[in-house]
Design a protein that fits this description.
The protein has 110 residues and is mainly α. Helix content is 55%, strand content 0%. The chain starts with 15 loop residues before the first helix and ends with a helix.
């Protein structure tokens, strides 16, 4: 069975449609998108946001950024990853070499 743990809190969209009518069709769509986003890891969120932005066309990046709370840079990176034919290893979330260095490499030589 799939692991359905939240990787981040569910974001509440602050667009005009969601603020004016929280039970409207658009607001429900935005809530569904954010529920799915909360279940995804970093890479999956980037790719999903990139896919949504491309599907929306012109102005899609700004719209998806407002709906999901992700930065426009992150969404652009997701679009670029989608367009790349042979992207990085699918089992990796971040590029190799990211994160903190090990304590041995960080410590002083004394």
């Amino acid at each position: 069975m799939a692991d359905l743990t939240l990787h981040r809190p569910i974001y509440a969209c602050r667009c005009r449609d969601c603020r004016s009518c929280a039970q409207g069709e658009t607001a429900q769509d935005h809530q569904a998108i954010n529920r799915v986003m909360a279940l995804l890891n970093e890479r999956q969120r980037r790719l999903f946001a990139g896919l949504l932005a491309r599907a929306q066309g012109h102005g899609g990046i700004i719209a998806v950024a407002q709906i999901t709370g992700l930065s426009r840079t992150t969404i652009r990176r997701g679009i670029a990853e989608l367009l790349r034919v042979n992207s990085a290893a699918p089992d990796r979330i971040r590029r190799r070499g990211g994160g903190r260095k090990s304590l041995e490499k960080n410590s002083w030589p004394w």
